């Protein structure tokens, strides 16, 4: 229900109406670029300070600029996610408009004996069914998880940015606290990035799921057997690699937290 509410246009909206997602995504992306520019000039300032021999001041600047840099990457990713949500809305429009015109295009159908079999197509092996296929488990997971992943990822990223200023404020005054804050900053921000990338991956999976089910609906409405391509090996590899990346993001966070219990002031 939550997924449908997020990707279904508001009542009364027509395909001719402008969908705000693309513009909003670009604006968020530009905000991310702006944050990156601030971090870039901060790093230049740190380099100049270091050249003048003030190591502590340089490390202080580099601490919070690291937080801003990672936040910038995450903000751009969040903008990309907003654009992808807009694509899902546009797919809904396309499918609804196609289904409205299909009754006039119905055929007598193909050989019913094909139903329940497999067939070779120019794009790979496909199954032939009477109705559109049920969503695959990964498609159901994608539709459920993309929004929580994006929200949690960006919130964790913001938390890491806040902690980066704690890290910065303790450089030169409390080395132990600075090391702990550095570990928390990096652990939180890399975890946030992993969640954001997972959310984008789930959004891509949701787009493919909608195209898969929508294509089946179109074929069924035409009175044809529904021909659906099997999930290719590349898609399976994508899922595995995405899960491995997410697991790595969680693992590094745990290791950073564990590392806060065994800090050495000389490592700052």
Automatic annotation (TrEMBL):
Keywords: Membrane, Transmembrane, Transmembrane helix. The chain crosses the membrane at residues 24-42, 62-89, 146-167, 187-211, 238-258. The keyword Transmembrane helix applies. This is Uncharacterized protein.
């Amino acid at each position: 229900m939550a997924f449908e509410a997020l990707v279904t246009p508001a009542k009364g909206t027509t395909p001719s109406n402008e969908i705000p997602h693309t513009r909003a995504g670009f604006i968020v992306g530009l905000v991310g670029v702006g944050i990156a520019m601030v971090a870039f000039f901060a790093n230049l300032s740190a380099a100049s300070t270091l050249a003048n021999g003030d190591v502590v001041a340089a490390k202080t600047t580099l601490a919070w600029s690291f937080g801003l840099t990672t936040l910038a990457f995450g903000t751009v990713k969040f903008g990309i996610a907003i654009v992808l949500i807009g694509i899902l809305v546009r797919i809904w429009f396309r499918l609804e408009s196609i289904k409205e015109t299909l009754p006039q295009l119905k055929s007598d159908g193909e050989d019913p004996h094909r139903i329940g079999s497999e067939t070779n197509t120019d794009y790979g092996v496909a199954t032939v069914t009477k109705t559109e296929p049920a969503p695959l488990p990964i498609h159901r997971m994608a539709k459920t998880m993309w929004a929580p992943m994006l929200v949690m990822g960006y919130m964790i990223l913001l938390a890491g940015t806040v902690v980066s200023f704690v890290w910065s404020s303790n450089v030169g005054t409390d080395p132990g606290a600075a090391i702990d804050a550095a570990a928390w900053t990096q652990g939180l921000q890399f975890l946030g990035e992993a969640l954001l990338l997972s959310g984008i991956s789930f959004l891509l999976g949701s787009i493919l799921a909608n195209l898969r089910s929508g294509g089946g609906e179109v074929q069924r409405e035409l009175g044809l057997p529904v021909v659906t391509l099997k999930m290719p090996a590349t898609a399976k590899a994508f899922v595995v690699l995405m899960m491995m990346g997410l697991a790595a993001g969680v693992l590094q966070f745990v290791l950073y937290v564990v590392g806060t219990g065994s800090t050495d002031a000389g490592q700052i």
